[in-house]
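Please go through the protein record below and explain what the tokens say about the fold. Record follows.
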Amino acid sequence: MAVIGEFIRKAIDVYGFITSEPDPAKAQRTVLQNLLEKARLTAFGKKYNFSEILQSDDVIGAFQREVPVHDYDKLYDDWWHYLLEGHQNVTWPGGQHYFALSSGTTSNSKSIPVTDDMLDAIRKSGMQQVMSLKNFDLPADFFEKQIMMLGSSVSLIEKDDHQEGEISGISAANIPAWFRAFYKPGAEIASITDWDEKVRRIAEEAPTWDIGSLSGIPSWVEMMLKEVISHNRLNTIHDIWPNLQVYTTGGVAFEPYRKSFEKLLAKPLIYIDTYLTSEGYLATQKRPDTTSLALILDNGIFFEFVPFSNENMDEDGRVKPDAKVLTLEQAQENTDYVLLISTVSGTWRYMIGDTVMITDKQRSEIKITGRTKHFLNVVGEQLSVFQMNQAMQNLQSQYDLEIKEFVVAAVRKDGEYINKWFVGSNRTVDNQAFAVSLDQELCEANKNYKVARSKSLKGVEAEVIPVEQFYRWSEDYKKLGGQTKIPRVMKEEDFLDFEQYIRSLS
């Protein structure tokens, strides 16, 4: 079998040698040209004159002038609801066999079309990730090991003319035949919708598997590993999966989970970050000496960048109609941008809800810095989730804590605004001292926050609670497992409901 592993590794090396990274500007122009050409006879393409745009000397400029920026609500209200009613050729040729369901953080719930072209693009992006493994110096036998993909159920919801589920479940239900021999937990267990039952079955079957790689959202992967260790009376996960070498993460920042995650291991793992959303596979980490993600530029997604500033954003976190919008070629490093995408699923100039920063323009590498609605700016704080995560990492060291989840809101107290935090950890601390330390960290990290603290933001309160209470809330009010993410920033009303729930657990 080692011969097979060596063959696969050499094939990856050869493929990587003969396929070079595309020129970013040229690749993106080609992608947009192909998107417009294929969709020009759809209802959307006719409405916004795609045929005329294609005749322009400046296709990108004409596209940006003609087609407005959309968020989910606008695309759904104007176009996508027709797809769910059975219409075809609306924003992409043909109809949709799948819709990705998402609880969303920029909207209460989403039903996002997943076309056959998008599934093909996701598979191709997955192959780009596999090809990049040549950069991580993995041994030949790694390529013979099984891959644990912990996602949502592959048992999709059947509708009259389509199926619905989370994107991880849809992707897993459409994995190539050759990959099924490597894929765990396998179709039977992956189809289980009850999280506790799924994890119990994984724990029971774990001794029969030889897992080399894990993938999934950190919080749910960690919970699964703990159950496997507990059920099989192990010290670490390497007692049962000694060949585990790689963890492919995504969905949320991994750093808040690193400390507790690594307690479950007997030896270090290679961590590879990815950017797979309900709307498509946008980026992947391609080299070991960075945590940045390389945008996938030549595979059905056209990227645009809106400088994340008050001039470009309205009070609801949406891009203003007259906002300045840049291409990748025009965007600069070390600036926060709202990301727009146009894709082979018929999303057009779509505000995905994430903010990103270009860290290496030559390599088209980015970091995800937050969410447009996970940006706290009620009284001028201008705090990004990236800054919040950094503060929590520093407080983990200062207080010897494991901080896995947190949520914050600007709430009124005695007629004035304060920032109130709930922090999920493995043990409690002095809440008042913790709040003071958190306030200091944020003042040092963000000058706007420091100014707000001297004027309109009158206080900071923090309460450290057992992290299990976050997961209980998620199970009761959202959904446990799969691709579900706990929000970092809430509106005041939602936060007060969350606080009431936490109080009910005492």
In short: Residues 1-11, 14-19 have pLDDT under 50 and may be disordered. The CA atoms of residues 409 and 490 lie 5 Å apart. The longest helix spans residues 2-18. The radius of gyration is 23 Å.
